[in-house]
Amino acid sequence: MKLTRPAMRPPVPCVNASSPQIYITLAMNKEIQSITRTLRNVLSGQPWYGKSVYAILEQAGTGDVYHQPGKKCHSNIELLYHMITWVQYVLCIIKNEGPEKAKAIETLNWQTINPTEHDWEKGVLQFKSLHNEIIELLDAQDDSFLGQNLEDKKYNFRFLLNGLIQHHIYHAGQIAYISNLAK
Asked: Which of 60, 129, 141, 152 is most buried (CB neighbours < 10 A)?
């Protein structure tokens, strides 16, 4: 499933003394568009560093996703569900669902993986679906949204969203590495 480009904002009426009503299109979310463009590129495009996250996940799904390369190392399925947890957290924060729900999601971080519940394909589909929802919600926001501080945190949405992108790159690299070790 490919993510789609954001639609342009509808024309905004502009009234002035010389013309009763002229329509202009204002891009009030250029920074958000830049963040979502970067997120899409990291997820499914052609990022500078190599394969996209979705390409890495697709490739990793052909191997043993439960393989742990060492006693203190995570398996690819653990990494995927860790990434899902943080996407769910970000989505919860964007939707302003409250600190209690956000804390409940945080408790799922590095959850115990049950092979009957935690399937690779199901996880990848969930990961993609959550990102589609995040991007849709962000496209409806103005750039002022990015400067808003998160409740109970000392950072804003800009920091959170850029951190999510960095988090994906970091863990996608781990998944690619573990996949290569398992061959």
From this structure: 60
CA distance 176 to 110: 19
pLDDT for 27 equals 64
Q: What is the pTM of this model?
A: 0.84
Domain ranges of the chain: 29-181
Which CATH class name applies to 29-181? mainly alpha
Residue 12, H or E segment: strand 12-14
Provide the residue type at 68 as one letter.
Answer: Q
CA distance 38 to 29: 14
Rounded-to-integer distance, Cα 157 and Cα 54, Å: 24
158 and 147 in contact (C-beta within 8 Å)?
Answer: yes
Output Rg (C-alpha) for the chain, integer angstroms. 19
> What does the alpha-carbon distance between residue 155 and residue 147 come to, in Å, rounded to a whole number?
9
Ranges of the chain whose pLDDT falls below 50: 1-9, 11-17, 19-26
Q: Determine the Cα–Cα distance for residues 93 and 110; give it in Å rounded to an integer.
A: 19
